Amino acid sequence: MSGYVGDVVALARKDLLLELRARDTLPAMLLFVVSTLVVFHFALPQGAGDDAAYGLLWVALVFTALFGLARAWVPEREHAALDGLVLATGDRSAIWLAKTVAALAFLGAAEVVALPAFAVLFAPLDAAAVLGVVLASVGICVVGTLASAMAAAGRGREVILPLLVLPLSIPLVVGGVGASVSSEPRTYVAFLCLYDAVFAILSWASFEYVVTE
Amino acid sequence: MIRAEEVEKRYGQRRALRPVSFALDRGGFLVVTGANGAGKTTLLRLLAGLAAPTRGALAVDASRDRLGYLGHEALVYGELSAVENLELFGRLYRVPERRERIGMLLERLGLWEARRERVSAYSRGMRQRLALCRVLLHDPELLVLDEPFTALDEEGADRLDEELRRLVGASTVVLATHDQDRVAGLSTGHLALVAS
């Protein structure tokens, strides 16, 4: 594989390999999402209804994603590897795209555990709800990877990341919850597709300016 | 190859580099000296395109993929081995026959035996040697080296000397150092920076 796609594959593969060796992101994400759902299971009053449960699922997923995104650029900070990538990569947006793919893989792995756990502990999830989760996850990773790159470049990254990501995640949560509980989920699914497309283009185009002065 | 006119860098109110002007022809070897805080690293980051000047004009006639930059850090991944790091960067730089090139560089810089160990287990000197492999991997036409002798033992410094001698005339080199004597026979120019 050559060219841009080859660069993205090589960079994403590197992220997965680093996680496989260090195991410092995915286990923590899994533990967090499962324990959050268990806590919510016991905290939610009996007869609270499925809608409240779906809301709690999104709280768990957004914060799990945030947890993963906070660590997304940690390997690049060590030994200033990001400078090396910035100098070596022809089209720097490949760095963002690869990191987004890796972040999505980690979040997807957490959701593979979280969604069945949710179905067991709370309520079943239909196809529209699962599609909503997938599309919202794409959106969170698209926006979150760019935001975490911005946060990683400055001081106070632990504070800056949630300040950037959480407001941008609100439309995704609205779309995701809507796709789960509405009798007309198509509108919400279409909204999530639009959000993903718009922010993917914006993030892809602006990443160059985030990693260079 | 490089033309700098009154290039200055500020970070907010703090001046990191006083206005500096110089020119360097293709194949030249410029040694940059100066006390701590004089702006050597800042100047080299500007030349590498990792930062932009606040004022002045800087023209570097070398595309990014033909530039090799050695900074204070190794710019590699600690959890990957030397070979994996160089494979990744070689791929991004589109290095032809990169397996052979990587093997040759690891041999030349004395890392062949440790090529499959993770970089996090390397000593600082070994990381510096790996950084040099990364810098030389794509056979750059412009080398920007920030205190390359730091952390190297005698053997490592001698190997670097050999590499620099090999590059003289073939590549353009900008090298920042506190030890000007080490490169006295190689340099074609000298730029002394003054602390802000």
Characterization of this structure:
The complex is a heterodimer of chains A (213) and B (196). Chain A has 213 residues and is mainly α. Chain A has one domain. In chain A, 84% of the residues lie in helices and 0% in strands. The radius of gyration of chain A is 17 Å and the shape is globular. The model of chain A has no long low-confidence stretch (mean pLDDT 92). With 196 residues, chain B is α/β, with parallel strands linked by helices. Chain B has a domain of 114 residues: Rossmann fold (3-Layer(aba) Sandwich). In chain B, the strands form 2 sheets. Chain B has a 5-stranded parallel sheet, sandwiched between helices. A 3-stranded antiparallel sheet of chain B has the order 2-1-4, with helices on one face. In chain B, helix 5 links the parallel strand 6 and strand 7. In chain B, helix 2 packs across helix 3. The interface between A and B is medium-sized, with 24 and 30 residues.
Shape of chain A: globular
Terminal residue distance of chain A:
31 Å
Biggest pleated sheet of chain B: 5 strands, parallel
Largest interface: A-B, 24 and 30 residues
Give me some keywords for this one.
heterodimer; A: 213 residues; 9 helices; 84% helix; B: 196 residues; alpha/beta; Rossmann fold; five-stranded parallel β-sheet; 5 helices; 30% helix
Summarize the structure.
The complex is a heterodimer of chains A (213) and B (196). Chain A is mostly helical. Chain A is built from nine helices and no strands.
Write the layout of secondary structure elements.
The complex is a heterodimer of chains A (213) and B (196).
Chain A: H1 3-22, H2 26-43, H3 50-70, H4 74-77, H5 81-88, H6 93-121, H7 127-153, H8 157-181, H9 185-211
Helix pairs in contact in A: 1-6, 2-3, 2-6, 3-6, 3-7, 3-8, 6-7, 6-9, 7-8, 7-9, 8-9
Chain B: E1 2-11, E2 14-24, E3 29-34, H1 40-48, E4 55-60, E5 67-70, H2 82-92, H3 98-108, H4 124-136, E6 142-146, H5 154-167, E7 172-176, E8 189-193
Parallel strand pairs in B: 3-7, 3-8, 5-6, 6-7
Antiparallel strand pairs in B: 1-2, 1-4
